[in-house]
Design brief:
Length: 81
Amino acid sequence: MTRIDVADGFGVHDYRSKLKLLRQDAGSMSLRNREGLGCPACGEAFDRLFVSDDATVTFDAAPDGPICLARTDERLLVLTH
């Protein structure tokens, strides 16, 4: 299983063929993991990935499963399992 590498930042285009864009606005995007990519935090496959350049983010609902966070210098990644 390929694990998302955030050691040198995160570029969605590096994993674009394995992720499906669900929603995008000026500072964030939500993607679905369609090929079993591994989480950068725990290594397990994740369901959804939220990527944000914004300084603050609010979520309306909590997922049913675990949540992992990964931080780069420029982005926050929230992964739900």
